[in-house]
Amino acid sequence: MAADRTRRQQYHLVLFLIILIAGALRLSSYDFSLPYIDQPDEPNYYLEALKWRGYYEPGGDIPGYPPGILTINSFVQILLGDDGVLMPVTVQIVRMLSLTINLLTLVIIALIARRLAGPIAGLIAAFSWGIAPLVVSGGVYATADPYTYCFTVVAVWLALIALQDPGRSQFAIWSVAAGLLAVLFKYPALPALLPGFCVTAYFFLTAVPRRWLILLGQFVLVGVIAAFLMFIYQAGRMDIREADTLVTSGWQNVLNPAYILNNLYYVFVPIGGIPTLILIIVGLAIAFYNNRMQQKALAIVLCLLPLVGVPWLAASFSVVSTLGRIKDVLPATALACALLGLAIIEIGRLFRTRRTYATAILVATFAIIIWVPQFLADIGYIQSTQPPDRRAELRQWADQNIPAGTVLVGPENHKTFNPSWSGLVNNRQWFDWIVTDDVLEHTPAQWRDEYGISYLALEILDYNRLTKAPEGQAFLDDLFLLRALTNPPPMRGPEVMFYRLWPPQHITDIAFGEAVHLVGYDVAYPAEDQNPSPGTTMTFTFYWQASSKPAEDYSMFLHLVPAAPTSEAAPTVQHDGPPVRLERPTYTWDNPSEVLISQPITLTLPDDINPGSYQLRIGLYNWETLVRLPITLAGEPVGEAYELVRFDISP
Asked: Are 338 and 129 in contact (CB under 8 A)?
C-alpha cells in the first residue's frame, strides 16, 4: 500500500510539472498582439455577444453560430460591465479561460491514457499535448475550439468510466452530455456523441441493468438540445463559408477518400506526423492482438470513434493543412495523444522482463526525435509573440499626431482603423478607411479629390514594389512621407510607410540647433493672394522633423514685428507654445523619418495695427532657460529668429 501511495504521489507530481510547463508555454504567448486583435474570429464572437445583449445591432454577422463561445463572451462582458468599449480586455479574459480549458484537456487526456495503459501512458499523453506547437498556439484563442477539444475528450473519458466501472454505468449519459456541450461550441463535434452511445450499445449486448434508462436519458438529452438548436436558437440561420460548403458539396466531400485521408493524416501532424502515426498503429495492433475479445479493446474503440469521426466529418467542409483549418482536427489529436501513450507502453511490454528499459528507451528516442524539436519550436513561437503589434502603434500614432481623415490601406491593415473589429477602441479621433489591393489604380490626385483620401498606409512589400518601377516611383514622388513605421524594433504586423497625399504649401529646410528642422508650413487667411489687412486671422500649420532626438523640451515663438528698422522691436502679435502639441514635447521626437504636424495656430492682426511692412519670425527656445536655438539655412547662420512671411499693411 505504501509503495502504491508513493507511485501515485510521483505520478501526480510529474503530472503537475507537465501542467506547469504547458501552462508556462501558453501564458507566455496567450496575450499576443493585444490590444490589437489579430485573430479573425475573436471580434466576431465579441460583437455577436454584444448583439445578444442589445448593444451592437450589426453583431458579428454570424446568426445561428453555436452558442457556447457566445455565451462565454456574454458572461465576461456582463462581469466587466462592457457595453462595447472593452473588447481587448474581454478578449484577454476569454483567452485566459481558453488557456485554462486547454490545460484541463491535458489532464483529461492523461486520465484517458492512464485508464488505457497505466500512469506512464498518461504522462506521455499529457506531455505530447502540452508541448505540441500547433496546440500551444491554437489553444489559447478566445474561440470555441479549445472548449470543443476539452468536451470531446471528456466525453471519451466518461464513456470509459461507464465501461470499466460497473457501478457507474450512468456515466454513459454524462458522456453524451459532454458530447452535446462540444456540439454547442462547434456543430461538427457530433462524433463526440459516439463513445457514450457505443457504451450503451455494449450494455445491451451484455445485459447491463438500467440500460433502457440510460438510453432514454441519452435520447432525452439529445432531443432537448436538438429542439433548442432547431426551433428556439434557429441554428439553421447560420450563414458562413463552412456551412455553405457543407450544403453545396458536403456529401461529395465526406465520401472523397483524398479529403478523408488528408484530414486523418493531419490529426497526427501536431504530435510528430508519420513517425507518431506508425508508432500508434504498431501499438494498437499489439494492443488489439493481446486484448482481443476483451473490454480493453472496446475502450480503445471508444477513443478511435471520435479520432476517425472528427476528421472524417470535417472533410465535408474543410481540407486541413498546417496553414489552415488544423483546428478542425485537433479534438482527434487530443485522443491521438492518449493512444500514443498506450502504444509506447504496449510496445515496451513486448520485452517482458526488460519492458521498463524498453519503454524508457522508446520514450527517450521519441523525445529526441519529436519532443525536443517541438519544444524548441515552442520557444521560437513564444519569442515571435512578444513584440507589440505595429497596427496598434500605427493607430495610436495617427490618433495623437495627425488630423483626422480617410486612410487608404492594404489588406494587412484592413481593420487597423476599424475599432469594432480591431479592438483599438477609446480613440480621440475617427479615421475612415478604404481598402485597396493596388494603390496604382488611381493617381494620388484622384484618390484625394474623387475618393476623399487624405493618407496612405503603404505596406512595405508594396512600397518596395513601387520603388522598382518608374510608374510606382512617380506615384511616391507625389506623396508626402509622414513616418516610416519599420524595423527596428521588430514588431508584429506589416511594416508601413505612412504618407499624406499632398505636401505642405511651402517646402523648407530650416535647421534649429543641430537636430530640429522645419520642413514645411501652410498658411491660410482670407484672400491669400493679397496682403492681410487689420483684423485678418492667419492660420499656420508647421511640419517638423528631428534628425536626432533633441535633448531638451523646446517651445516655439511666432513674432509679428515691423520689418524695419530693427528686429528687436516689440512684437505686434505673438504666439508661444509647443511646436506640435503638449503630448509630443521635442524630447520625444526620436524617429528621424517622422514628420510632426503642428496643431493649427492662429494669429489675428489688431484692428488698430499701424500701416507698414511686417515680418513674421519663428524660433525655438528652451522654455526653462529662455535660451534660443541658433538657426541655419543651407548651412548658413541666420540668427535666432527666422523670417517666415513678409507682407505690407496699407493705410
From this structure: no
pLDDT tens digits, residue range 60-99?
Answer: 678 889 999 999 999 999 999 999 889 999 999 999 999 9
Q: For residue 459, what are the β-bridge partners?
A: 496
**Closest C-alpha to 302, from 483, 175, 414:** 175
Residue 243 falls inside a structural domain: no
Are residues 418 and 475 located together in one domain of the fold? yes
Q: What is the dihedral of CA 132, 135, 136, 139, to 10 degrees?
A: -160
Rounded to two decimals, what is the model's pTM? 0.90
Can you give the residue range of the structural domain that contains 196?
Answer: 2-238+248-385
Same domain membership, residue 328 and residue 310: yes
Same domain, 46 and 179: yes
Q: How many domains does the chain have?
A: 3
Q: In terms of domains, do 414 and 287 share one?
A: no
pLDDT one-digit tens code per residue, 63-72? 889 999 999 9
Rg from Cα positions in the chain? 34
What pLDDT does 62 receive?
83
Instruction: Give SS3 for 502.
Output: coil
Question: Are residues 424 and 363 located together in one domain of the fold?
Answer: no
Computed over every residue of the chain, the mean pLDDT equals: 92
For residue 153, give the C-alpha cell.
Answer: 475528450
Compute the distance between CA of residue 179 and CA of residue 187 in angstroms, rounded to an integer. 10
When pLDDT is averaged across residues 44-64 and rounded to a whole number, the result is 86
Q: Give the model's pLDDT for residue 78.
A: 97
d(CA 241, CA 44) in angstroms, rounded, equals 14
8 A C-beta contact, residue 542 and residue 524: no
Q: Based on the fold, state whether residues 454 and 526 are members of the same structural domain.
A: no
